[in-house]
Design the sequence.
């Protein structure tokens, strides 16, 4: 935790500040607004993802550069899809081609705004993609992880397309999509599977190990299995949990709303916590991955938005108790960090 606060978070904010300055220069008003808002409101995504850079050894700064750029693309596109008037799946698919290209050094950049009216971002999205490509292109043996990053990235992109179309089409599309994967994950509900595809953690873990020089084909396969579906599912279910009120106000899809009652949601979160713990024990650096696991629970539950949720206090107490003492440690440390860190204005 000392290294996280003293090394990782400052590095993350250094990278983010560069992207903030770049976003301020976006000519188009709507694109500029969404780019700045996505960083301001979702900085903690980059902070949490940046912790994986500790796995990268002496290439930690490169890992931070990739993680911040890739996560910034993700958050920016999520805002564009959530807040825009577009309901065109072709538009969403084209926007998320940028994330595929970011994971594929050598891919030519495209006009990712081809299907929408707002076009001129002053090269902002291209710069983010190039940054990711540059880091991955400098890594030896990226071919070891490429099938796994592209698989996880493809699932993520599919989710973003299906969940942002016209409201009456979302659930049928997501259910139909899940049917293609249900045989492999019969113990998941369609909305839980969707949540599992919405995380970038597996990609950050793969890239950080790659940069460390310790990755081989066997480890790459195990990372994918250990992170998908349960670790990633826990991550995104927590993300949706804290956003329930905000999403209801904005009319956005929230997977937690499909649990029939509060107790079912508590039970399923416990299920994900248990299975995440079992899977990460199969990885090297198990204490690190346990830190991530318990840190996810603590950091998300420490978010101020939880205080506005019905039965939020009891939910927090129950999940912290199930997740272990370290989750409580992260919870109270994150609460303190949010109180002490200086405010940043855009």
Sequence:
């Amino acid at each position: 935790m000392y290294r996280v606060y003293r090394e990782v978070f400052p590095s993350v904010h250094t990278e983010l500040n560069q992207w903030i300055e770049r976003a301020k220069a976006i000519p188009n008003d709507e694109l500029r607004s969404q780019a700045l808002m996505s960083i301001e409101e979702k900085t903690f995504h980059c902070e949490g993802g940046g912790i994986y850079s500790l796995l990268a050894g002496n290439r930690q700064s490169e890992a931070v550069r990739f993680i911040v750029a890739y996560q910034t693309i993700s958050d920016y596109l999520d805002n564009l899809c959530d807040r825009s008037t577009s309901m065109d799946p072709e538009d969403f698919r084209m926007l998320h081609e940028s994330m595929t290209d970011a994971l594929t050094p050598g891919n030519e950049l495209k006009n990712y705004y081809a299907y929408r009216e707002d076009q001129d971002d002053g090269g902002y999205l291209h710069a983010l993609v190039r940054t990711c490509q540059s880091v991955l292109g400098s890594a030896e043996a990226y071919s070891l992880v490429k099938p796994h990053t592209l698989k996880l990235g493809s699932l993520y992109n599919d989710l973003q397309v299906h969940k942002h179309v016209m409201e009456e089409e979302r659930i049928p599309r997501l259910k139909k999509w899940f049917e293609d994967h249900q045989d492999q994950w019969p113990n998941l509900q369609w909305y839980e599977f969707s949540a599992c595809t919405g995380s970038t953690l597996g990609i950050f873990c793969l890239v950080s190990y790659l940069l460390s020089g310790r990755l081989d084909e066997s480890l790459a396969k195990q990372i994918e299995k250990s992170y998908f579906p349960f670790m990633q599912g826990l991550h995104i279910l927590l993300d949706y949990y804290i956003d329930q009120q905000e999403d209801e106000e904005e009319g956005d899809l929230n997977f937690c709303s499909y649990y029939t009652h509060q107790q079912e949601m508590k039970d399923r979160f416990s299920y994900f916590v248990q299975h995440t713990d079992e899977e990460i024990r199969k990885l090297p650096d198990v204490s690190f991955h346990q830190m991530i696991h318990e840190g996810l629970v603590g950091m998300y539950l420490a978010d101020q938005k939880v205080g506005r949720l019905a039965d939020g206090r009891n939910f927090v107490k129950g999940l912290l108790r199930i997740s272990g003492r370290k989750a409580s440690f992260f919870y109270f440390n994150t609460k303190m960090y949010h109180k002490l860190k200086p405010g940043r204005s855009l």
Remarks:
- DSSP finds 15 helices and no strands in the chain.
